[in-house]
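Supplementary Note 3. Input sequence used for the single-chain structure prediction.
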Amino acid sequence: MPTNNTPFLTIFLLFLGLFRFDSFPGLEAATGKLASIPGLYVFGDSLVDAGNNNHLPISISKANYPHNGVDFPNKKPTGRFCNGKNAADAIAEKFGLPLPPPYLSLRGLLKREKRKSAAVTGVNFASGGAGIFNSTDQKLGQGIPLSEQVNNWLSIHEELMKLEPSEAQIHLSKSLFTVVIGSNDLFDYFGKFELRQQSKPEEYTKLMADKLKEQLKRIHESGARRFLIIGVAQIGCTPGKRAKNSTIHECDEEANLSCSLYNEALVKMLQQLKQELQGSMTYTYFDNYKSLHDIISNPARYGFADVTSACCGNGKLNADLPCLPLAKLCSDRTKYLFWDRYGHPTEAAARTIVDLMLTDDSHYSSPITLTQLVST
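The predicted structure, written as discrete structure tokens, is reproduced below.
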């Protein structure tokens, strides 16, 4: 640590703030630009995994092979379930931050300096196949469930606390903690007969929200104050679900209903949690269900031509098989909503959804918008 009167972290954060303010276009706020944040910390599943699963020894839930990454810099398959950058990357870029590296890529003595740097600007803890419940990662061999992701965050938190304590607390309070999880728990519910026997959809989705609440409280206890919580989208409208309807390829409305039930339970839980924490937690909930519905209902408005098929795959709706190296690849990825049969968005779709998160219109966000959250 520096011994002069200006802590290193203060200088570093000031530099980042000035650099971001001058170098990227933001949405309208009090300053005329998108307010800056010092760090971005990401928890979730394959929708935002930046390559954590690449470092798991036996997991088959990986995307470290073509055609994944075909539009990423240098056409590199990084472990993102996407043709390019995902929503977590798009959020980081909007705020002028480096792409948060996968937590598991920061382990080891040779990564010490990289880990220190990432601890300040942001880390991605998300894992393909992960769920709120610890059981959901078992279906595909291995993943990092949310509880373990929070454990990993606490390891990074220790790194931050080696800095000047008051500056570290300010940093934590101004950083953005993003949570994108729940789809795999719902896929798990429909895929396991015993789960459906044990509880009705209303009961199961409430249990999901209650379990998520436990993990959010752990993150909050570490000093986090600003949260972006993203609801579950219409998993019944993924290409894989549509392809099972062999006639007209409609959405699976039973699956969509469970998504709605979970999102309702999630919104209530967040309201209760904020009351319990006496307002020390500030959050925005993004209605991903509504955003996807609007895109599917009027694709041309958002620049898409195909909102039912997978860009990468085989068979009906290009959704009979996963996106493997021998799969058929669409020629124009910017016109497809879905990358693969599982419903991962293309980079174009991820960027569209992030743009909706950052609009000043509260149509998709409550109780405040993301721009309002980062400006408080």
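Confidence is low (pLDDT under 50) at residues 1-32. The first strand starts at residue 40 and ends at 44.
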